[in-house]
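lol forgot to send this yesterday, sorry. struct tokens for the thing we talked abt
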């Protein structure tokens, strides 16, 4: 447990840094350009890169030592943050206000990919739970991971808004570079137990058994052998498809209601929901059926999404988001606990990476589409179109009401799909398999 806590603290600091960059660049880009299309495209770039990279990153986790890939993650972030800083200090400020500026988008992509490099750590950490924690305590350990994610969200959201509001982008970049360097230095002092079957980073040519470096076919076989597991991944994928609506437009919606300093600070408070949810899982676990817990949490989450923007007020938004964020650790811990039990350790990195890629693949589609749809259809509908008379008397009118209408519609769809999924044969099959005999030996190596 001492080693697990050390690596969790190291990953927490890295996560704070990467989320700090993600939040700050998003806030800054919207304030510079005043365009929701920019934030939507940024969300699309972020999720598309996560989706594409998951297959490869998961293979790195399986093939090489966990400590090595975590160091590689931080090194990649550091290099990209330094490159983004050089572009920022050498470019006139007015160039960043133009949505069509190539320099603006190069800067954004460098910063976002630097943050995305931290996903390699997340996959490695999920497999380290399997290595370091006994099976009966993994759900609680996953709860601690959720708590760490909440803490990183809390700290990053508060300081990103404050730094952009009071100090500016330059000092945000300096902070990210310093913290990433410190994370690497600390990780070098941590000793991690590693499975015997590994190759070194200096000899990638040796990493060819089991169908090559990525070995997508073998990974799919490991998933298919567990009845209902593919359905769980597809369910999470659909949720992310709808979640792209919120990821793309929530910052724009919040910044229409309150100043950036207030919005960033509010996100810090709301992130306590992550911590509360993670602590509850760490203390109580997920119950006898993690899958049932996952679906019940989704029912509550989508129900909240149906109503938390019905009024143009920061208060119901804050309450709804707090409850929503409190349930995310339960959903993530449930999925991780199931995968850690039914998938053999030597393939968990690839399966976690595969799940990440498939689940995230839907979000870029939503993110790239929803910005223009909001800007060109829903916002006009609730400002000058038929929605003013049809819904305006009780729903309100204006730009924020157009975004709110999208949030409500997405919540209704998510709730209906969750209720249907709970009644499916795939749900019952996976639930029975998880609570039945251990399937580790059944999965192909």
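and heres what i got for the seq, position by position
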């Amino acid at each position: 447990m001492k080693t697990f806590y050390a690596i969790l603290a190291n990953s927490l600091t890295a996560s704070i840094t990467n989320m700090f960059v993600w939040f700050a660049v998003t806030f800054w880009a919207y304030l510079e350009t005043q365009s929701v299309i920019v934030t939507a495209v940024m969300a699309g770039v972020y999720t598309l890169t996560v989706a594409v990279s998951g297959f490869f990153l998961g293979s790195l986790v399986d093939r090489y030592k966990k400590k090595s890939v975590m160091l590689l993650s931080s090194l990649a972030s550091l290099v990209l943050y330094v490159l983004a800083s050089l572009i920022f200090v050498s470019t006139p400020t007015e160039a960043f206000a133009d949505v069509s500026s190539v320099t603006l988008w190069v800067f954004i992509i460098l910063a976002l990919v630097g943050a995305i490099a931290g996903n390699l750590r997340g996959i490695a950490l999920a497999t380290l739970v399997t290595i370091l924690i006994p099976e009966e305590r993994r759900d609680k350990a996953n709860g601690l991971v959720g708590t760490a994610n909440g803490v990183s969200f809390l700290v990053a959201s508060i300081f990103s808004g404050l730094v952009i509001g009071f100090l500016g982008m330059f000092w945000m970049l300096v902070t990210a570079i310093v913290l990433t360097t410190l994370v690497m230095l600390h990780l070098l002092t941590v000793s991690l137990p590693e499975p015997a079957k590994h190759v070194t980073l200096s000899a990638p040519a040796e990493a060819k058994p089991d169908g090559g470096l990525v070995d997508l076919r073998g990974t799919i076989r490991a998933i298919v052998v567990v009845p209902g597991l593919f359905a769980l991944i597809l369910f999470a994928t659909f949720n992310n498809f709808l979640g792209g609506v919120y990821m793309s437009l929530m910052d724009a919606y919040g910044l229409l209601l309150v100043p950036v300093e207030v919005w960033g600070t509010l996100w810090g408070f709301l992130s306590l929901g992550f911590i509360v949810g993670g602590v509850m899982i760490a203390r109580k676990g997920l119950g006898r059926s993690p899958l049932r817990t996952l679906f019940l949490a989704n029912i509550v989450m989508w129900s909240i999404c149906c109503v938390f923007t019905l009024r143009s007020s920061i208060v119901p938004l804050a309450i709804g988001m707090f409850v929503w964020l409190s349930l995310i650790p339960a959903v993530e811990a449930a999925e991780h606990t199931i995968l850690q039990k039914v998938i053999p350790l030597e393939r968990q990195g690839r399966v976690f990476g595969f799940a990440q890629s498939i689940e995230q693949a839907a979000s870029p589609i939503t993110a790239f589409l929803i910005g223009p749809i909001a800007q060109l259809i829903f916002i006009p509908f609730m400002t000058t179109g038929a929605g003013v008379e049809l819904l305006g008397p009780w729903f309100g009118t204006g730009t924020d009401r157009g975004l709110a209408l999208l949030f409500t519609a997405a919540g209704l769809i998510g709730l209906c799909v969750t209720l249907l999924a709970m009644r499916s044969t795939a749900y019952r099959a996976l639930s029975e398999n998880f609570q039945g005999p251990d399937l580790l030996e059944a999965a192909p190596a």
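Residues 198-210, 437-445 have pLDDT under 50 and may be disordered. anyway ping me if u want another try
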